């Protein structure tokens, strides 16, 4: 969270606060980039932290932005909710330049949040965080009965699924018939 | 991404694969029962071939593993060795698969019918001792691909009786009497790739023994 700007809701980011540097900070000033999610809140993140994301790392390498250009052009991730992007940025900052521990207990326990985090992390190609998330999902499956897994992960039974499919086909058939009748009426 | 329903079926394929890697065999088998799409996805994964066409029957006392299409593939039981069902089961029958496990880890079963990659004559002696600990019915039948320390069998068990089956295949047989009994025997039969330990008297043996007893009685009466 240390190098994240919160509440900056414009495409052009406000003057960013400087991220606290560790005692072992390199002499060469670190470059920063900017990302925003669906909520348009811009997060300032160091290149070191962003290295966790193969997608963003690739974008940085290809674009060759200067500091100014990076500030003026935050990477837009419109498909990621603001709070989820915040979690991702926090994780990247916390694990910047550090070997990742075997366990990560700070992941969300709510399945909706975890699910969105998995999709975001998979999209951003953050391998280590994806591994933690998958482990967490696996933990939510372990020792559960098929019925419990269905309930937790909102999975319909095969019978419910078939019934829903039949219903959808029926509805589509009715709609198609209605449109044909309307078209025939127009033709008259 | 918040618009996608948090349903396990909506996870990207690469994510589902990674989740499966973190689950043990038991949980994957459960997951297969959740719904048809999950069953089809799991069965399509080459990384878990043991699940394809693999039937595992587990009840209170019995574990059976068989497959109609897989033959002589290695099966690693590490993931199920620690299950309570494994520890409490009395019967283990695994058809078509070669077990990558030490025979010692199977000693607790009463009835065993499996294929092993390796056996060690020294472990067979431990098995003999295990059999002689109790007269409860126990039978181990297993084939093996290699036997270590085979030359020590005579040293451990003494001179065997040589049997020949109808195909001319020779096997060695030892009959060891249970301490403190007259009628209870442990029979050990070993051929090139086959081994049988049993303390259950075959019907043929029973008939032979009773005939001998009757003859003795008759002779003593005369």
Helix/strand layout:
The complex is a heterodimer of chains A (188) and B (222).
Chain A: E1 32-36, E2 42-46, H1 47-50, H2 54-63, H3 67-72, E3 75-76, H4 82-94, H5 111-124, H6 127-141, H7 146-152, H8 158-187
Parallel strand pairs in A: 1-3
Antiparallel strand pairs in A: 1-2
Helix pairs in contact in A: 4-5, 5-6
Chain B: H1 13-21, H2 25-32, H3 36-43, E1 54-58, E2 62-67, E3 73-75, H4 78-81, H5 84-88, E4 91-99, E5 111-120, H6 121-133, E6 139-148, H7 153-157, E7 161-164, E8 170-177, E9 185-190, E10 194-198, H8 203-221
Parallel strand pairs in B: 2-4, 3-4, 4-5, 5-6
Antiparallel strand pairs in B: 1-2, 6-10, 7-8, 8-9, 9-10
Q: Strand pairing plus helix content of chain A: what structural class?
A: mainly alpha
The description of the largest β-sheet of chain B is:
10 strands, mixed
Topology, number of strands of chain B: 10
CATH superfamily of one domain in chain A: Potassium Channel Kv1.1, Chain A
The overall strand count of chain A is: 3
N-to-C span of chain B: 98 Å
SS class of chain B: alpha/beta
Radius of gyration of chain A: 23 Å
- Give me the CATH architecture of one domain in chain A, please: 2-Layer Sandwich
Largest interface: A-B, 37 and 27 residues
Average of pLDDT of chain B: 85
Radius of gyration of chain B: 24 Å
Percent of residues in helices of chain A:
40-55%
Organism (chain A): Caenorhabditis nigoni
Family (chain A): Belongs to the SKP1 family.
InterPro entries (chain A): SKP1, SKP1-like, SKP1-like_dim_sf, SKP1/BTB/POZ_sf, Skp1_comp_dimer, Skp1_comp_POZ
Protein name (chain A): Skp1-related protein
């Amino acid at each position: 969270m240390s190098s994240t700007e919160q509440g900056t809701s414009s495409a052009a980011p406000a003057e960013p606060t400087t991220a606290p540097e560790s005692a072992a900070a390199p002499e060469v000033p670190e470059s920063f980039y900017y990302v925003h999610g669906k909520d348009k809140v811009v997060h300032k993140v160091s290149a070191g932290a962003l290295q966790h994301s193969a997608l963003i790392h690739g974008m940085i390498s290809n674009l060759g932005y200067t500091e100014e250009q990076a500030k003026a052009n935050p990477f837009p991730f419109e498909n990621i909710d603001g709070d989820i992007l915040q979690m991702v940025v926090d994780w990247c900052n916390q694990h910047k330049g550090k070997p990742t521990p075997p366990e990560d207990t700070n992941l969300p326990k709510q399945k909706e949040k975890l699910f969105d985090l998995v999709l975001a992390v998979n999209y951003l190609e953050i391998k280590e965080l994806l591994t933690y998330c998958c482990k967490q999902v696996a933990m939510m499956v372990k020792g559960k009965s098929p019925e419990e897994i269905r309930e937790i992960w909102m999975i319909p039974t095969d019978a419910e699924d078939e019934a829903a499919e039949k219903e959808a086909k029926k509805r589509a058939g009715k709609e198609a018939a209605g449109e044909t009748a309307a078209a025939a009426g127009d033709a008259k | 991404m918040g618009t996608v329903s948090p349903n396990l079926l909506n996870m990207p394929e690469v994510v589902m694969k990674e989740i499966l890697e973190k689950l043990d065999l038991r949980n994957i088998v459960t997951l297969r029962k959740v719904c048809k799409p999950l069953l089809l996805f799991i069965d399509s994964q080459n990384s878990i071939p043991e699940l394809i066409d693999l039937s595992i029957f587990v009840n209170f006392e019995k574990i059976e593993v068989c497959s109609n299409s897989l033959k002589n593939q290695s099966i690693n039981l590490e993931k199920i060795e620690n299950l309570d069902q494994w520890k409490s089961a009395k019967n283990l029958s695994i058809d078509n698969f070669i077990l990558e496990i030490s025979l010692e880890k199977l000693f607790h079963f009463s009835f065993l019918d499996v294929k092993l990659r390796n056996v060690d004559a020294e472990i067979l002696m431990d098995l003999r001792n295990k059999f002689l600990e109790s007269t409860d019915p126990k039978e181990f039948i297993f084939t093996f691909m290699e036997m270590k320390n085979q030359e020590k069998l005579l040293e451990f068990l003494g001179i065997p009786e040589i049997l020949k089956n109808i195909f001319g295949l020779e096997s060695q047989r030892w009959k060891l009497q249970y301490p403190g009994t007259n009628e209870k025997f442990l029979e050990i039969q070993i051929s090139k790739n086959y081994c049988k330990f049993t303390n259950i008297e075959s019907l043929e043996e029973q008939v032979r023994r009773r005939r001998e007893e009757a003859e003795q009685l008759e002779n003593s009466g005369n």
